[in-house]
């Protein structure tokens, strides 16, 4: 394989791994925004909280990255469940502007609290020795860790797909999304399904926060810094469509990585230009729900 | 005297500040059937929606088998024994026919196997998604889904609206069969004659209030009442006796 091809293959591979992290973080927001009609601008804060839980487990309990992951998931889901039952419950029925004001306020509170507790420094969680180094995949040299990310995120995506499409819970969730009033009148406890989905979505964000910390370092402004990126994934994919979020995250991850390689100084804007074109052509996103 | 299945007293409800039904009161025994008639906009659908908890209740009481439910959310009303087939059918578009049934399943004699036997056209399309069904099939699915909740009382809101005559015939036979099996129902229907033929009792709503309550046969025998309240002539030849 020529050097140019190898370079582009490696870039694409890195872009896919970045996209997988974006998907993990954004999948919960896809559901809350598209399904529950909740504009949750504090969503990235849950990825950040997951990262800090893992960091605390590594620093204070001596856990490794993988052992800290369950701590991060459970801790974040508990925080999410408490916030959902106390704060979010009040904003489900209010206008979108009120939701935006409340959730962005919550994001600022998260930023301030993490700044006070953990300090302003950037943290990348240490990766285990067996995940360091590179692999040769069909003549392309790729990071072992990024391979691991793609496999793990891919398995999680398959798991999400199976739960949504192949289980009774998934059928009730889809019914609640299609027609919440009818779902309630068919005996489905829509409120409980949404609460559970919200909590699990925050747990998935925590997974993204922890596993992606090498690419998106944990820091107090994480909750705001990556919000735009995650909102772009959700909007481009189509509100409420997990398939759309998955596709959009991969596309955005790859295009962003390519863009930064082609135009190192302004490559970050390539992704925005592509997204602009996509949303002009399909304002409802790639896989908008009917 | 046996406790009524459904008791509604002094119910006042609507949307926002608008009152659509007022001072509604009636009761229904186990396995009884009731037709709700009236011109368009008189509050028939609002009455059904109020029973299901989908309107703003401003007053009154509702109980099913002695349990008050006016403050319960819709899903708990279903658990209590109300099953609803809405006017707009409300089929879950992203679910297959089979999934549409299974999401509503509650313990009892009605299950997916029995209902797919009852509606062979649905059985043929069990793997099709809700948005791939014809209007008649959607209506059958709406009724079947309501039955999957194993209701004590079935609420049917214009189940025959916009359907081809052959489908109307099929659904009418189904509703009659349900009545024969002791399933109580409240039927809102524009096909006045059919509704009178299916339900033993009838109430007529005018401007959100009950202006007639009595035996359906009384209306069949007094077409002038129908003309007065519903604006239609009761054509005896079309009426099937309950």
Task: Please explain how this structure is put together.
The complex is a heterodimer of chains A (290) and B (242). In chain A, helix 1 (3-34) runs parallel beside helix 5 (144-166) and helix 2 (43-61) packs across helix 8. In chain A, 49% of the residues are buried. Chain A is built from twelve helices and two strands, in the order ααααββαααααααα. Chain A has a domain at 23-222. The N and C termini of chain A lie far apart (44 Å). Chain A has a two-stranded antiparallel sheet. Chain A is mostly helical and 290 residues long. In chain A, a hairpin with a 2-residue loop joins strand 1 (134-137) and strand 2. Chain A has helices at 3-34, 43-61, 65-86, 96-118, 144-166, 168-178, 180-185, 190-211, 222-225, 227-237, 242-262, 268-281; strands at residues 134-137, 140-143. In chain A, 72% of the residues lie in helices and 3% in strands. With 242 residues, chain B is of the alpha/beta class. Chain B has a single domain, classed as 3-Layer(aba) Sandwich (Rossmann fold), CATH 3.40.50.300. Chain B is built from ten helices and ten strands. Chain B has helices spanning 44-52, 74-80, 97-102, 112-118, 120-124, 135-148, 165-180, 192-198, 216-221, 223-229, and strands spanning 6-15, 18-28, 33-37, 56-64, 67-68, 82-85, 153-157, 184-188, 201-206, 209-215. In chain B, the strands form two sheets. Chain B has a six-stranded mixed β-sheet, sandwiched between helices. In chain B, strands 2-1-4-5 form a four-stranded antiparallel β-sheet, with helices on one face. Chain B is globular, with a radius of gyration of 17 Å.
């Amino acid at each position: 394989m020529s050097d140019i091809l190898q370079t582009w293959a490696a870039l694409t591979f890195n872009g896919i791994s970045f996209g997988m992290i974006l998907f993990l973080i954004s999948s919960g927001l896809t559901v809350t925004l598209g399904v529950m009609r909740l504009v949750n601008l504090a969503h990235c804060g849950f990825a950040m909280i997951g990262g800090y839980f893992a960091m605390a487990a590594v620093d204070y309990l001596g856990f490794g990255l993988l052992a800290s992951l369950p701590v991060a998931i459970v801790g974040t889901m508990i925080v999410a469940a408490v916030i959902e039952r106390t704060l979010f419950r009040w904003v489900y029925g209010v206008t979108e502007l009120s939701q935006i004001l409340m959730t962005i306020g919550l994001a600022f509170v998260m930023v301030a609290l993490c700044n006070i507790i953990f300090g302003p420094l950037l943290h990348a969680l240490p990766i285990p020795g067996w995940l360091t180094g590179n692999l040769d995949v069909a003549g392309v040299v790729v990071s072992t860790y990024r391979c691991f990310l793609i496999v793990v995120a891919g398995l999680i995506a398959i798991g999400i797909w199976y739960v949504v499409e192949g289980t009774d819970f998934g059928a009730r969730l889809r019914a609640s999304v299609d027609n919440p009033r009818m779902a309630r009148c068919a005996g489905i406890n829509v409120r409980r399904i949404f609460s559970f989905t919200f909590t699990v979505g925050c747990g998935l964000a925590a997974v993204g926060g922890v596993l992606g910390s090498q690419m998106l370092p944990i820091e107090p402004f994480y909750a705001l810094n990556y919000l735009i990126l995650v909102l772009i994934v959700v909007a481009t994919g189509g509100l409420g469509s997990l398939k759309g979020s998955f596709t959009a995250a991969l596309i955005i991850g790859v295009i962003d990585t390519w863009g930064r390689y082609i135009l190192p100084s302004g490559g970050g804007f390539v992704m925005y230009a592509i997204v602009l074109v996509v949303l002009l052509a399909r304002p409802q996103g790639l896989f908008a729900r009917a | 005297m046996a406790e009524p299945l459904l008791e509604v007293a002094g119910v006042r409800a609507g949307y926002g500040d608008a009152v659509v039904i007022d001072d509604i009161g009636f009761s229904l025994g186990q396995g009884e059937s009731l037709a709700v008639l009236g011109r368009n906009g008189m509050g028939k659908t609002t009455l059904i929606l109020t029973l299901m908890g989908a309107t703003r209740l401003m007053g009154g009481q509702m109980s099913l088998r002695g349990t008050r439910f006016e403050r319960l959310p819709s899903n708990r009303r279903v658990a209590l024994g109300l099953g609803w087939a809405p006017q707009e059918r409300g089929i879950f578009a992203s679910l297959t026919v089979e999934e549409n049934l299974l999401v509503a399943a509650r313990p009892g004699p009605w299950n997916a196997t029995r209902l797919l036997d009852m509606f062979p056209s649905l059985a043929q399309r069990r793997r099709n998604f809700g948005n791939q069904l014809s209007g008649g099939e959607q209506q059958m699915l709406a009724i079947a889904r309501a039955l999957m909740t194993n209701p004590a009382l079935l609420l049917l809101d214009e189940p025959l609206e916009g359907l081809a005559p052959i489908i109307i015939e099929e659904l009418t036979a189904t509703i009659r069969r349900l009545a024969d099996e002791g399933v109580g129902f409240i039927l809102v229907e524009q096909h006045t004659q059919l509704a009178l033929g299916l339900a033993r009792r009838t109430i007529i709503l005018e401007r959100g209030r009950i202006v007639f309550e009595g035996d359906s046969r009384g209306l069949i025998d007094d077409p002038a009442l129908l003309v007065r309240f519903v604006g239609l002539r009761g054509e005896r030849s079309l009426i099937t006796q309950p």
